[in-house]
Amino acid sequence: MHTPHSHHPVPTPEQLQQQLADAGLRATRQRLLILESLLVLPGHPTAEQVHQRVTGQLSSVSLGTVYKTLDSFVVAGLTRRVASAEGSRRRYDADCTEHHHLVCADTQEIIDYCDPKLDELIRGFFADKGLPGFQPHSFSLHVTGSRVVDLPTAESAQQA
Ligand SMILES: [Zn+2]
């Protein structure tokens, strides 16, 4: 079965270069390939998955380089690290807008979930209740469960 994330469009080299330039990073071939892979791979890829795709085009790139580059992307705001309940493997999210995650405990698939109503509820809750000694910047729910067959995801619903 295909994941609903497999429709990511391939960004043009100009778009990739612009993204790196905006983030203040020099557009090396390695960085361009790693960024492209991050954007093109479905869902929330691991560094290993990014590495595998990159080496298909540039075999000399090591996994360590991919980790370091992805971490520099995180610092530069190009990607986010996904908080993983299992903590097994780091996963990366090319979508830096605020959203939530549904995590399938059976397949470890991470499904993006967006709902402005939910964001409103969470913001309202903490605005009313206050968070003493803490200033929240963003909220991200991590919902663990089991995927039910034919359950429409946020993305496939958007496509319809
Ligand atoms: Zn996500």
Task: Report on this structure.
The protein is α+β, with helices and mostly antiparallel strands and 160 residues long. It has a single domain, classed as Winged helix-like DNA-binding domain superfamily/Winged helix DNA-binding domain (Arc Repressor Mutant, subunit A, Orthogonal Bundle), CATH 1.10.10. The chain has 6 helices and 5 strands; from the N terminus they run ααααββββαβα. α1 crosses α2 and α3 crosses α4. The site of zinc ion (ZN) has 6 residues, from loops.
In short:
With 160 residues, the protein is α+β, with helices and mostly antiparallel strands. Helix content is 41%, strand content 12%.
Helix content: 40-55%
Shape: globular
Reported by name, the CATH topology is Arc Repressor Mutant, subunit A
Under the CATH scheme, which architecture would be assigned?
A: Orthogonal Bundle
The overall average pLDDT, rounded, is 85
- Strands, count: 5
CATH superfamily: Winged helix-like DNA-binding domain superfamily/Winged helix DNA-binding domain
If you compute it from the alpha carbons, what radius of gyration comes out, rounded to the nearest whole angstrom? 17 Å
Number of helices: 6
**How many structurally independent domains?**
1
Beta-strand percent range:
5-15%
CATH class: Mainly Alpha
Low-confidence blocks of residues: 1-7
Tell me the layout of helices and strands.
Elements: H1 13-22, H2 29-40, H3 47-55, H4 63-76, E1 80-82, E2 91-93, E3 100-104, E4 110-113, H5 116-129, E5 142-145, H6 154-159
Parallel strand pairs: 3-5
Antiparallel strand pairs: 1-2, 3-4
The structure holds zinc ion (ZN).
